[in-house]
Q: What sequence folds into this?
């Protein structure tokens, strides 16, 4: 490990709240585990799709949504373990180059739900660098509150694809569990986005 | 190999050139990939994701040339399963093209499809079952149908070219009308075994 390595200092709940206050009518896909709880804690919304499984798939769910709804902003909020399982999806997103998509990785450098084992980001892997190399228009690793303040509105307003790995601490936040029935979440999301007639046709 | 662009000519024997008359016929009559492409258009499929297979090569070309359909090359097949979830959340229909070995990559992600009742249409070209040369293709190929069934996917098979279009059409209606996952397995008997030539 390099001695110069910066330690994560940000509070994940404060980061999620700071980002989502800029969302307006954006569509949000949350990766499984703590990013789901963070997203729910910032305020439940029918246009939040919480994934409780399918690890490695959150970014691709976001891509499908972004391509289906090119006029709407899509934000994926996921974890470092989840994005590491789907690194190929960053290449697929880079190739598709969706201007309305942004990925936020709540990077605490650990598998928080399974006993706090280190992830590859703790061991030197730079996921923002991978996203940049894969063709994301902008990608950065954020360490400070001022970084997050600067990036929060950009995630919703600048042409994508955008990627921010945000270094957050491993401190546990109170559990805020969203709904977990996948079919109910799907119906709620589609009804809010498409209207009941189209959603249940 | 047949050099004629845009035609699908089955080469049954290595090195043998197709007869001119047969090539002409193939140019005139739309082959199953062309008809399948028309079915996808009729179904209002907006996204087609794929990991390439030679059996899907012509359909992939047609999709890339179609301004109404977005072609999405993947790095691995489960990306296409997750993509289908997002597309459906956004009101768009998608199709995933894969080779049988790719089905093995999809297993965990198919859980999301089942839990959320997302319509999924997978068109699977089979390897490892009919005149296969490569023994490494067999394990997943032989498990494809049971793996899909175990994950709640309805499996249809098409073992001759005439069946493919109607089977995909029926599978698509089932998938999108009942919000279920359907895989259409296109037999290696139709595609032909890959030739390994020196």
A:
């Amino acid at each position: 490990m390099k001695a110069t390595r910066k330690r994560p200092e940000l509070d994940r709940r404060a980061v999620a709240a700071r980002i989502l206050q800029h969302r307006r009518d954006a569509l949000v896909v949350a990766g499984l585990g703590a990013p789901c709880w963070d997203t729910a804690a910032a305020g439940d919304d029918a246009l939040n799709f919480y994934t409780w499984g399918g690890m490695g798939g959150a970014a691709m769910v976001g891509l499908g949504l972004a391509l289906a709804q090119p006029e709407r902003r899509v934000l994926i909020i996921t974890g470092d373990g989840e994005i590491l399982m789907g690194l190929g999806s960053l290449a697929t997103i880079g190739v598709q180059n969706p201007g309305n998509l942004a990925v936020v990785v709540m990077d605490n450098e650990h598998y928080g739900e399974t006993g706090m084992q280190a992830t590859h980001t703790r061991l030197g892997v730079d996921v923002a660098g991978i996203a940049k190399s894969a063709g994301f228009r902008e990608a950065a690793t954020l360490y400070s509150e001022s970084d997050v303040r600067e990036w929060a509105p950009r995630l919703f307003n600048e042409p994508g694809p955008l990627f921010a790995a945000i270094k957050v601490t491993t401190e546990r936040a109170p559990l805020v569990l969203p709904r977990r029935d996948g079919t109910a979440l799907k119906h709620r999301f589609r009804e809010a986005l498409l209207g009941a007639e189209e959603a249940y046709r | 190999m047949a050099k004629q662009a845009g035609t699908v000519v089955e080469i049954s024997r290595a090195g043998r050139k197709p007869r001119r008359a047969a090539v002409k016929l193939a140019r005139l009559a739309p082959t199953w990939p062309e008809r399948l492409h028309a079915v996808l258009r009729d179904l209002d499929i907006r996204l087609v994701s794929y990991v390439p297979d030679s059996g899907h090569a012509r359909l992939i070309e047609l999709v890339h040339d179609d301004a109404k359909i977005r072609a999405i090359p993947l790095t691995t097949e489960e990306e296409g399963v997750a993509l289908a979830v997002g597309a459906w959340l956004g009101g768009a229909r998608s199709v995933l093209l894969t080779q049988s070995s790719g089905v093995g990559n999809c297993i965990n992600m198919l859980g999301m499809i089942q839990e959320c009742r997302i319509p999924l249409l997978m068109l699977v070209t089979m390897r490892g079952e009919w005149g296969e040369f490569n023994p490494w293709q067999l394990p997943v190929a032989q498990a494809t149908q049971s793996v899909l069934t175990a994950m709640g996917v309805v499996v249809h098979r098409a073992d001759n070219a005439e069946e493919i279009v109607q089977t995909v059409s029926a599978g698509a209606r089932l998938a999108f009308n009942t919000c279920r996952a359907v895989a259409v397995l296109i037999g290696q008997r139709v595609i032909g075994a890959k030739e390994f030539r020196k």
